[in-house]
Amino acid sequence: MTAHQNGTISSEVSDFLLNCFVRSHTWQLSFSLPLSLLFFLAMGANGVLLITTWLEASLHEPMYYLLSILSLLDIVLCLTVIPKVLAIFWFELKSISFYACFLQMYIMNCFLAMESCTFMVMAYDRYVAICHPLRYPSIITDQFVAKAAVFILARSSIVTMPIPILSSRLHYCGRKVIENCICTNMSVSRLSCDDVTINRLYQFAISWTVLGSDLILIFLSYTLILRAVLRLKAEGAVAKALSTCGSHFILILFFSTILLVFVLTLVVKKKVSPDVPILLNILHHVIFSALNPIVYGVRTQEIKQGIQRLLKKGC
Questions:
Q1: What average pLDDT does the structure give for the chain?
Q2: In Å, what is the CA distance from 49 to each residue of 66, 111, 119, 179?
Q3: Which residue ranges does UniProt annotate as crossing the membrane (predicted)?
Q4: Terminal CA-to-CA distance of the chain, rounded, Å?
C-alpha cells in the first residue's frame, strides 16, 4: 500500500482486466466469427507473400523486400492484438498481467509507426521509379533497403518507448478494469490517480509528428509522381506508370482513412457509442493486415506469377 500527497491510498496492481463489449455477450460471439476469419486470412495471406518473396529469385528486388517488411509488421500486429481479443470473446480470459499490458501497448504504438514509415519509404521508391527511372537501379539498392529498415526500426522504437514507460510509472490506486479490448495508452492511463497530462500530450505530439510527417511526405511524393506522369506523351505510358503505384496508393488511402475515422470518433465520442472507437481500433489491426497482401497479390503480376509457380512446384 502507498499513500499519496492528495490523501489517496493505492495498492500495487499486478494485472488488469480488459472489459470490452460487455453490454452484449451475444454480440461478442457473433463478432468473433468474422474477426477470427479475418485474422486467419491476414496471417495466411501475409505468410504466403513472405514465403513467395523468400523462395522466388525473381522477387529478390528492393520493392518486394519493402513489401515483405510490411507483411512482417502486419503479422506481428495481428498476433499482438487479435488472439487476446478472441480469448476474451470465447473464454472470458479478460486478465492481462501488468507487464504484458505495457508490452502490448509498446508493440502496437511502435509497429504502427513502423508501418507508417515503411509506407513513406515505399512512396519514395515509387517516386524514384517513375520520376528518375534511369537512376532507379543505382539509388534503390539492397543496401538502401537495409539502411531504410534500420532507420524504420530505430526511429519507431525510440519515439514510442516513452509511451509505455510513462504509463507504467503511474499509480493505479487499485483500479484495474480497462474499458477496452486492448491496452491502449489512454485506456490504461485514465485508471491512474495521478495527473496524466504528460501522457496525453506526448501521445498527441508523437501521433501527429510521426504519422503526420509521414503522410505529408507520402502526399508530396505522389504529387511529384502525378506531375511527372501527366507530362508523359507516349501512348499507354500514363496507365503503365499509374499501375506501378496503384496498389501502394490504395493501401495508403485505406490506412490514412481508417486512422482519420478513428480520430474523429474520439473527438466526437459524446455523440457515438463508446464501443465504436474500440471496434475501429481492433478492425484497424486486422482488416488492413488482410488487405495488404491481397491487394498486392491481385494487382502485381510478378507476385501473382510467383505464387502460381510455387503452387505448381508444390503439386
A1: 85
A2: 12, 19, 17, 36
A3: 31-52, 64-90, 96-123, 144-166, 205-230, 242-266, 278-298
A4: 64
